[in-house]
């Protein structure tokens, strides 16, 4: 039988018994009142015992009781026991998690909504010079690099920021923030000293080799030109060889020049000036007109000038126009357009050429990537032109959008952020 039914039966029996005794003794009302009073006092006492047991944490075994109260004690005792077990399991899990994150080689810091430190692992304390006692401190007060503070306040964490370690500036860190939960953020920092060192070595190597190759190539080309000029009855084999040698030397010179330009783009940063893009485009198109018999249609829909480096922009735009002329038939039109829309200020170079396959579009901005196409005439190039364009645009808060259809043509759009506008 359910406990409450048992309890009710006992109460009813008691009342019937007392009612009978009351009726027989003529004290019905008094006995009934006494019984009700006694029951009330009994329940209040039980409630008070229960409350007392709960206030002590309901940790120990429950006091001896009867009826429905015994069941209540038993159920609460079981709930407490299960909760204790779950808590123990959770604490063990949290401990294991703490131990594993503590042992992580990468620095991890949990930040609150106001950039306050909530938790740090050992690597974070070592590499950022933090202490356990720094919990609650605002991280920009402790790591004071301007680029780090700008990054943390930007709320745009799509790219990591590179900063030196405040403890040892020889250590280079790549810091990334990952937002999670309600306003919490996880700051992860990875030691990229080795990668950066290798990158610098690669850049230095390419720059040095390119630089050293420049003089011998100029000398070689000079001698080849002299030999071609004094051609007094060379055999056809020698004439062709000289022509090919000259062509290849020239190609090597372009390669060296492009490599040097790329190195400069990666390593040097000049203060931006206001560049008159419409004027620059007019010049480049005029030069293009003289190089090729092809009509170039230039449309200048805005006179917007942008902050940047004129030499770099000239190089990027010349590469795009050069490609449009190189990879489209002689009787087709190349369109150049400078215009403004709500996305930014745009330059499009559109051709009616051979187009680029979808699979190649993502790769043509890689260094030395050239699309394998069977053409009637071989088109010369270094495979570095679009890599230069990409770098130049990156340095000008702009990006390159390429759309193309095989056999129909290609359209290269340089989209500059509106904040680059000179005015
Ligand atoms: P390249 O010196 O070979 O022109 P780029 O980096 O400028 O080097 O271009 C990479 C490749 O992208 C080219 O080899 C060519 O296959 C392709 N490409 C670039 N521009 C165009 C274009 N306008 N039309 C078709 N293909 C193009």
Structural class: alpha+beta
- Main pleated sheet: 5 strands, antiparallel
Mean pLDDT: 91
CATH fold-level name of the largest domain: Heat Shock Protein 90
Distance between the termini: 88 Å
Please provide the count of β strands: 12
- Strand order within the widest sheet? 2-1-5-4-3
Just give the CATH class of the largest domain.
Answer: Alpha Beta
Spatial extent as radius of gyration = 41 Å
The number of helical runs is: 12
Strand content: 15-25%
Topology as a string of helices (H) and strands (E): HHHEEHHHEEEHHEHEEHEEHHEE
CATH superfamily of the largest domain: Histidine kinase-like ATPase, C-terminal domain
As residue ranges, the low-confidence spans are none
Summarize the structure.
The chain contains 12 helices and 12 strands. The chain has 423 residues and is of the alpha+beta class. The radius of gyration is 41 Å and the shape is elongated.
Describe what this molecule looks like in 3D:
Helices cover 52% and strands 17% of the residues. The mean pLDDT is 91. It is built from 12 helices and 12 strands. The protein folds into 4 domains: 2-98; 104-191, PAS domain (Beta-Lactamase); 195-267, Signal transduction histidine kinase, dimerisation/phosphotransfer (DHp) domain (Helix Hairpins), CATH 1.10.287.130; 273-420, Heat Shock Protein 90. The strands form 3 sheets. The protein has a 5-stranded antiparallel β-sheet with strand order 2-1-5-4-3, sandwiched between helices. Strands 7-9-10-12-11 form a 5-stranded mixed β-sheet. It has a two-stranded antiparallel sheet with strand order 6-8. With 423 residues, the protein is an alpha+beta fold. Bound molecules: adenosine-5'-diphosphate (ADP). Residues 319, 323-324, 327, 351, 353-354, 356, 364, 369-371, 381-387, 410 line the site of adenosine-5'-diphosphate.
């Amino acid at each position: 039988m359910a406990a409450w039914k048992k309890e009710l039966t006992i109460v009813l029996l008691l009342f019937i018994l007392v009612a009978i005794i009351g009726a027989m003794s003529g004290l019905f009302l008094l006995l009934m009142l006494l019984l009700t009073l006694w029951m009330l006092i009994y329940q209040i006492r039980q409630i008070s015992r229960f409350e007392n047991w709960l206030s002590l944490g309901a940790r120990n075994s429950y006091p001896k009781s009867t009826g429905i109260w015994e069941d209540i004690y038993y159920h609460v005792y079981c709930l407490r026991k299960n909760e204790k077990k779950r808590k123990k399991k959770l604490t063990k899990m949290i401990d294991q998690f703490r131990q594993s994150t503590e042992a992580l080689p990468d620095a991890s810091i949990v930040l609150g909504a106001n950039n306050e430190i909530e938790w740090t692992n050992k690597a974070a304390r070592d590499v950022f010079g933090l202490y356990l006692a720094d919990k609650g401190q605002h991280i920009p007060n402790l790591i004071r690099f301007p680029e780090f503070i700008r990054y943390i306040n930007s709320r745009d964490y799509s790219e990591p920021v590179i900063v030196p370690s405040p403890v040892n500036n020889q250590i280079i860190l790549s810091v990334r923030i990952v937002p999670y939960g309600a306003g919490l953020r996880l700051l992860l920092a990875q030691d990229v000293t080795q990668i950066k060192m290798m990158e610098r070595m690669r850049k230095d190597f390419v720059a040095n080799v390119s630089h050293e190759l420049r003089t011998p190539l100029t000398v070689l080309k000079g001698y080849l030109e002299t030999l071609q000029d004094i051609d007094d009855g060379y055999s056809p084999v020698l004439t062709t060889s000289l022509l090919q040698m000259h062509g290849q030397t020239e190609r090597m010179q372009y390669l060296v020049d492009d490599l040097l330009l790329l190195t400069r783009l990666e390593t040097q940063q000049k203060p931006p000036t206001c560049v008159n893009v419409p004027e620059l485009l007019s010049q480049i198109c005029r030069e293009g007109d003289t190089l090729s018999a092809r009509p170039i249609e230039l449309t200048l829909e805005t006179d917007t000038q942008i902050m940047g480096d004129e030499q770099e922009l000239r190089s990027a735009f010349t590469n795009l126009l050069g490609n449009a002329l190189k990879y489209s038939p002689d009787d087709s039109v190349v369109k150049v357009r400078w215009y403004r829309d709500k996305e930014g200020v745009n330059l499009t170079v559109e051709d009616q050429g051979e187009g680029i396959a979808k699979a190649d579009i993502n790769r043509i901005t890689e260094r030395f990537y050239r699309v394998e196409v069977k053409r009637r005439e071989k088109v010369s190039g270094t495979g570095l032109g679009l890599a230069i364009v990409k770098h130049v645009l990156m340095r000008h808060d702009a990006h390159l959008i390429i759309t193309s259809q095989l056999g129909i043509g290609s359209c290269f759009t340089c989209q500059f952020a509106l904040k680059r506008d000179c005015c």
